[in-house]
C-alpha cells in the first residue's frame, strides 16, 4: 500500500455546511497500515511555507500543493503516508493543515478546530512561523489557549486539563522560517532552543496585561513540556521564492539545505510513535501494536 501512495490525499475537509468530515478514501488507506505510526503534523499561519516543509520531510520536491499567490492554498487536513526513513517497520504519516488566520476566511473557530485536530492526531507537532519569535508570533498561537474548549475528557478525576493533555500531546517543534538575525544575546551565542525558551518566559505580576502576556506562554509550557526550535534562513534568492517546488537543490542556499537536513534528521530520529492516553502504541487502524 505505502509504495503506491505517490501523493497526499485529503484526510479531513470542510463541507458546505462548515462541518469538518473525514474522507473515506483516506480512512481506507489508514485501514491498511498495520505498522506503528509516527504522525508528524504542521500548523501555522497561512502562506508561511508549511506545505513546502512537509515535502522536505517526505523527501520529495512536490507532493503537498504549494501556492505562490496571496490566496491560501491548503484546505482542511491532507495526509501522506510513507515508509519511515529511519525506523524499519514503521510508517511516517505526514499531516499538512489549512493555514490559520486567513483574513478572507475570517473564522477563528474553524481555525481552532483544525489546530486542535492536528494536536490530537500528531505525535510531533510543528508550529511554523515566519520572521522572529516575538510577542506577535506568540499571540498568533492563540489557538493553544482555546484547546481546552475543544478537547474534553470522559473522566471524573480532579486533575486539571493540562495534566491529561501532556500524557498524549505531541512533541512540539517551532520552525521559524526566513530568520535573518544572529542568535546572540549579551554578545554570547545562544542556541535555537534557548531562543524559544526565552520567548516563553513568564512575567511576574497579576495585572491584566501580564496575565494576557503569560496565558499563551503558560499553555505552551504546560501542554508541551517537550519543545524544540529550528530557525531556517531564506531558502534561496528572492526572485526564486515563488517557484521553490521547481528548483533543484543546487538552486537552494547551502545554509538552508544544512538546516533542512538537521531538521529532518531530528524529526526522523526523535519523533515518537503515536501512543494512546495510557501510553500504548497504536497503528493507523487504532489497534494496539
Ligand atoms: N520566503 C520563503 N518562502 C517560502 C519558504 N517556503 C516556501 N515558500 C514559498 O512561500 C509560498 C507559500 O508556500 P506554501 O508551502 O504553499 O505555504 P503554506 O503555509 O502551506 O500556505 P497555505 O497552505 O496557504 O497555508 C510558496 O510560493 C513557496 O514557494 C521559505 O522558507 N521562505
Ligand atoms: Mg499549504
TrEMBL record:
Give the matching Gene3D superfamilies.
P-loop containing nucleotide triphosphate hydrolases
Q: Which organism is it from?
A: Denticeps clupeoides (denticle herring)
User: What domain of life?
Assistant: Eukaryota
Record flagged with keyword Transcription regulation: no
Task: Kindly state which keywords UniProt assigns to this record, in alphabetical order.
Answer: GTP-binding, Nucleotide-binding
InterPro entries, per the entry: G_GB1_RHD3_dom, Guanylate-bd_N, P-loop_NTPase
Q: What is this protein called?
A: GB1/RHD3-type G domain-containing protein
Q: Is GTP-binding included in the keywords of this UniProt record?
A: yes
Question: Which molecular function term from Gene Ontology is one that the record holds?
Answer: GTPase activity
What's this protein's family per the entry?
A: Belongs to the TRAFAC class dynamin-like GTPase superfamily. GB1/RHD3 GTPase family.
- Where is each GB1/RHD3-type G domain found? 34-272
